[in-house]
Amino acid sequence: MSSVQSISEKVHVASWRDYYEITKPRVVALLVLTALVGMCLSTPGAIAWQVLIPAILGIGFLSSSAAAINHIVDERIDSEMARTHNRPVATGRMSALQASVFSALLAIVGFAMLYALVNPLTAYLTLSGLVGYSCVYTMYLKRATPQNITIGGLAGAIPPLLGWTAVTNEIHPNALLLVLLIFTWTPPHFWALAIHRKDDYAKVNIPMLPVTHGVAFTKTQILLYTILLFVVGLLPYLVGMSNWLYLVGAVALNLIFFAYAWKLKFNADETTAMDTFKFSIVHLMLLFIVLLLDHYLLPIS
Ligand code: HEM
Ligand SMILES: CC(C)=CCC/C(C)=C/CC/C(C)=C/COP(=O)(O)OP(=O)(O)O
C-alpha cells in the first residue's frame, strides 16, 4: 500500500462508489423487484404511478439504509473476513459517522415518502423490515444462533407484502404466501455461500450452520429446504392466485434448485456450493418474473 493511500484512508476519503456499495445495491434491486411483484399481484388493474414511484423509492431507501447499518455494525468482522475485508467502512475509507449520517438520511426520506405518499401501514411495516435486518438479525441473531438466517430471513422476505400493502392498505393472505416463498428460499440461498465461506465465519466466531453443525449437516438442510420450497412454490397455483404459466415456471425452477442441492449433497466438487448460491439468485429473480408474466398474460377472472 502506498503512503498516499494509507493517509487518505485515515482521513476517510469516501467516494460516491463507497456510498453506493454500502447500500448492497444488487440485493436491494432484487428486494425491490419482489416488492414490485407484490404491488402488481395485489390488483388486476394498473398501479397508479403516484403510488408506484414513492413505494419503490421508499422501500428501496429503507432497505439501503438497513444495508448501510449492517456495514457499520459489522465493521470489525467484515474487516477480518476475506469476502468482506475491502468494504468501505471495514477498510476505513468511510467512517462509521459518515455511514450513519447517510443511513439516517435514507431512512428518514424513505419513511417520510412511504408515510406521506403511500400509507402509514406500509411505512411501519417497512421500518419493521429495517429494524428486523439491522437490529434483530445483524446485532443479535447473527452472533447468537446458527438459526440466525432462518429467523432473520423474515426481514428480507417482507418486500412483497410491502408492495401489496402499498396498493391495497391491507395484509392479504396471498401477500403472506409470497413472503413465505422468499422465507423458504433464504436458507438454501445463504447456507450454500456459508459452506464456501465456512472458514471466514469460523475465524470471526460467527455461528453459521456449517461452522456449528458441519458441512454435511448443512447440505442435508439445504436439500430439505429445496423440497419444502418445491411444495411452497405450488401454493400460489393451488390457492388460485396464479395460473399454469407460473406453475410450469415454479416447478421447473424448483426442480433445478433441487438438482443443485442434490449435487451439493451427493456429488459436489469445489465449485458446487458457489454454483448453488449463484443459481439461487437467478432462481428467485426468475420466479418473481414468472409470477408477473403469469399475472398479466393469463389474468384470473
Ligand atoms: C437473512 C437473509 C439473507 C442472508 C443471510 C443473505 C446473505 C447473503 C450474502 C452473505 C451474500 C453475499 C454478499 C456479498 O458477497 O457481497 C448475498 C448475496 C445476495 N443476496 Fe442474499 N441473503 C439474505 C436474503 C436475501 C434476500 C431476501 C434477497 C433478495 C430478495 C437476497 C439477494 C441477494 C443477492 C441479489 C445477492 C448478490 C449480491 C451481489 O452480487 O452483490 N438475499 N446474500
Ligand atoms: C426494509 C427491508 C426490507 C430491509 C431488509 C434489508 C436487506 C438489505 C436484507 C438483505 C439480507 C442480507 C443481504 C443479509 C446478509 O447479511 P449478512 O450480514 O449476513 O451478510 P454480509 O456478510 O454480506 O454483510
Protein traits:
301 residues; mainly alpha; Tetracycline Repressor, domain 2; 2 domains; 16 helices; disordered N terminus; binds protoporphyrin IX containing FE
Topology, pairings included?
Blueprint: H1 3-10, H2 16-21, H3 25-41, H4 49-73, H5 75-80, H6 88-91, H7 96-118, H8 120-144, H9 148-157, H10 159-168, H11 173-196, H12 198-203, H13 209-213, H14 215-238, H15 244-266, H16 272-297
Helix pairs in contact: 3-4, 3-10, 3-16, 4-7, 4-8, 4-10, 7-8, 8-9, 8-10, 9-11, 10-11, 11-14, 11-16, 14-15, 15-16
Bound molecules: protoporphyrin IX containing FE (HEM) and farnesyl diphosphate (FPP).
Protoporphyrin IX containing FE is lined by residues 26-27, 30-31, 34, 83, 137, 149, 152-153, 156-157, 182, 186, 189-190, 193, 281, 284.
GO biological process, one term: heme O biosynthetic process
Protein name: Protoheme IX farnesyltransferase
Membrane topology: Multi-pass membrane protein
Descriptive overview:
- With 301 residues, the chain is mainly α.
- It has 2 domains: 15-170, Orthogonal Bundle (Tetracycline Repressor, domain 2), CATH 1.10.357; 172-301.
- The chain is 80% helix and 0% strand.
- It contains 16 helices and no strands.
- It has helices spanning 3-10, 16-21, 25-41, 49-73, 75-80, 88-91, 96-118, 120-144, 148-157, 159-168, 173-196, 198-203, 209-213, 215-238, 244-266, 272-297.
- Helix 14 packs antiparallel against helix 15 (244-266) and helix 15 (244-266) packs antiparallel against helix 16.
- The longest helix is centred in the last third of the chain and has 26 residues, at 272-297.
- It binds protoporphyrin IX containing FE and farnesyl diphosphate (FPP).
- Protoporphyrin IX containing FE binds next to helix 3, helix 9, helix 11 and helix 16.
